[in-house]
Each structure stands twice: as C-alpha cells, then as structure tokens.
C-alpha cells in the first residue's frame, strides 16, 4: 500500500509526464472579484468555473448537442472548442479531441489528472485525458456549465 501511494505521488509530482500540454502567455487576461463573478454567473456556473466543481454526467446541457458551432467560455467569451472536434465519449460530458486554439486554454496539474482552464479568465473547464480518438488521442472532458454554445448560423450574422 505504501509503495502504491509513493508511486502515485512520484507520478503526480512529475511535470514532464505531460510534455504535450504546453501553456502560453495570454495578454488580454480577464480578472474579476468573486463578487463580480457571482453577479454575472448562475450559482451552478459559479460553482463549476470558479470553485472547480463538476456537473453531473449525462444530465447537462451539451453532452448530446450535435449542432455545428463554437463553444465559448461562459465567463469571458473566449472561443474554446468547436463542434468539429467534438465526439461522443460515452462519459456523459461534452468531449473534444482538441481545443480551437492551444493558446486559449491552459493546463494545471491536479493530482494524477490534468486540469483544463480558460487561459483568459482562469475559469475551470474540466480535465484532459490521453484516451481520446485520433488524431490527437486526447479527450478534453468538459463541463457544459463552463461553456456557452454559439450556433454557426448565429455566428455568421454577427
Ligand atoms: Zn474565460
């Protein structure tokens, strides 16, 4: 048992375990106080994006959403994921094999998992795992409550 715990700890403290997850500096960061976020977001959105919560699987907004469009950060509007990179992982959460732009998200080590956040406003989005489909082999497991879906038709009008 001790050996297992030690091995886990060693694996967790090893940042080179995730060399493919590179963070980029963001120049237009959005910083707001907890009070400001609370006013802007629903209690569920706040609990997930600002307090690293997780919504229930299957019973969420975008798990089964197959419409074409862009998933933006619910906090700051940063474009995060596209429907073209969405797939049904069977986990009950909206899953993507790649973000729209690698500079729009950032990675944090979270125990033996890798947490994914919005690189502009630091919103917690979900986690990324290495059991996704080709071509990346990655599975970005996201919370619907962290995302704001904008349909393609609507986007074209803007
Ligand atoms: Zn954001």
UniProtKB/TrEMBL annotation:
Keyword field contains Phosphoprotein: no
Cofactor(s) needed: Zn(2+)
EC number: 1.8.4.12
Catalytic reaction annotation: L-methionyl-[protein] + [thioredoxin]-disulfide + H2O = L-methionyl-(R)-S-oxide-[protein] + [thioredoxin]-dithiol
Top-level EC class as recorded in UniProt: oxidoreductase
Statement: the UniProt record of this protein carries the keyword ATP-binding: no
InterPro entries: Met_Sox_Rdtase_MsrB, Met_Sox_Rdtase_MsrB_dom, Mss4-like_sf
Stretches assigned to the MsrB domain: 34-152
GO molecular function: metal ion binding; peptide-methionine (R)-S-oxide reductase activity
GO cellular component: cytoplasm
Keywords of this entry: Metal-binding, Oxidoreductase, Zinc
GO biological process, one term: response to oxidative stress
PANTHER family assigned to the protein according to its UniProt record, in alphabetical order: METHIONINE SULFOXIDE REDUCTASE, METHIONINE-R-SULFOXIDE REDUCTASE B1
NCBIfam families: peptide-methionine (R)-S-oxide reductase MsrB
Family statement: Belongs to the MsrB Met sulfoxide reductase family.
Protein name listed in UniProt: peptide-methionine (R)-S-oxide reductase
């Amino acid at each position: 048992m001790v050996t297992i715990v030690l091995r886990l700890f060693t694996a967790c403290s090893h940042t080179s375990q995730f060399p493919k997850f590179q963070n980029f500096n963001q120049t237009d960061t959005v910083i707001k106080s907890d009070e400001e976020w609370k006013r802007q977001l629903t209690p569920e959105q706040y609990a997930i994006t600002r307090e690293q919560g997780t919504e229930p699987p299957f019973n969420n907004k975008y798990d089964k959403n197959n419409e074409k469009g862009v998933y933006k950060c619910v906090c700051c509007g940063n474009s995060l994921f596209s429907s073209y990179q969405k797939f049904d992982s069977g986990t009950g959460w909206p899953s993507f094999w790649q973000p729209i732009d690698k500079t729009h998200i950032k990675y944090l080590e979270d125990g033996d998992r890798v947490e994914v956040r919005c690189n502009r406003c630091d919103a917690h989005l979900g986690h990324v795992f290495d059991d996704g489909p080709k071509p990346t082999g990655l599975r970005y497991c996201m919370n619907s409550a962290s995302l704001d879906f904008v349909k393609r038709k609507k986007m074209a009008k803007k």
